[in-house]
Amino acid sequence: MDPSPSISAPSLFSLKGQNVLITGATRGIGAACALALAQAGASVVLVQRNTPEGSKPNHETLNAIRATGATAEVVYCDLDDLKAVKGLFQKALDVIGGQIHVLVNCAGIQRRSPSVDFPESDWDDVLNVNLKSVWLLSQAAGRHMVPLRRGKIINFCSLLTFQGGLTVPAYAAAKGALGQLTKALSNEWSKDNVQVNGICPGYIATDMNERLLADPVRLRQISERIPAGRWGDPKDFAGPVVFLASSASQYVCGELLLVDGGWMGR
Questions:
Q1: What's the pLDDT at 128?
Q2: 172 found inside a domain
Q3: 2 domain-assigned
Q4: Where residue 158 sits, what CATH number does that domain have?
Q5: Is 203 tagged catalytic?
Q6: Can you tell me the distance from the alpha carbon of 136 to that of 126, in angstroms, rounded to the nearest whole number?
Q7: N or C: which end of the chain has fewer CB within 10 A?
Q8: 6 in a domain, yes or no?
Q9: What's the total number of domains in the chain?
Q10: For residue 119, what are the CA distances in angstroms to 74, 156, 246?
């Protein structure tokens, strides 16, 4: 591993000259992270689902980044299409030109059902998007970054990396495995100056949690247990993602950073 740079503290967090590939950036946490990375100086490649025929693509994040003067491009890929995922990293390289310095795996899906009735198709969908696509993208990133002896991979894990949850067996299985994958890749690649870390969101007010937010009983139960006294906001991830993408985290390896308002500490 290369030593941490001896530069001023503000410069440690600069991403000027860095190219970032990020999934799940069209909304919620991913959109907030993509904008923060661009504001820190990075050029950003956003992965977006293929647009259904007859509808317009969602370019809100792309336009917001470009409005800051930063470079942003889009590549299209459905992450449940694993054959397409295998070519995604090279596709992003072709679009941005040069190298990719940071990979952020933020995309994810959720399926809820009692475990005795949980459909096998839902299990496969969640594991493919939330785990196998991350593995394939990370493997491609490693093949690119390790020979260059530099890079950052940031995986979005979950509280369910540590806990089992209710009626979400596939999501819990995928996020638990993702935490272990993060550590396994870090164990191999840290010596090659590639830092692999995870961010674990707590309860965040996004569309993935619409059902919980709409359930007054569960909303009260969850809210009362959060020491910070509120649900998280996507903007709460701007600082953590820039930190893990930058030289400020040069000696941070295999960590699962909780951004949960204190939930896991209680």
A1: 98
A2: yes
A3: no
A4: 3.40.50.720
A5: no
A6: 15
A7: C
A8: no
A9: 1
A10: 33, 24, 41
Q: CA 52, CA 168: separation in Å to the nearest integer?
A: 27
Q: Is residue 4 part of a domain?
A: no
pLDDT per residue, tens digit, the chain (266 aa), is 788 888 888 899 999 999 999 999 999 999 999 999 999 999 999 999 987 765 567 799 999 999 999 999 999 999 999 999 999 999 999 999 989 999 999 999 999 999 999 999 999 999 999 999 999 999 999 999 999 999 999 999 999 999 999 999 999 999 999 999 999 999 999 999 999 999 999 999 887 777 777 888 888 888 999 999 999 999 999 999 999 999 999 999 999 999 999 999 98
**Burial group, residue 28, by CB count within 10 angstroms (0-12, 13-18, 19+):** buried
The token pair at 264 is: 């896991």
> Residue 54 belongs to what domain range?
11-260
**Residue type at 56 in one-letter notation:** K
Sign of CA dihedral 5, 11, 17, 18: positive
Per-residue b/e over 54-68, b at no fewer than 16 CB within 10 Å?
eeeebeebbeebeee
Of the candidates 151, 247, 139, 255, the residue with the CA atom closest to the CA atom of residue 193 = 151
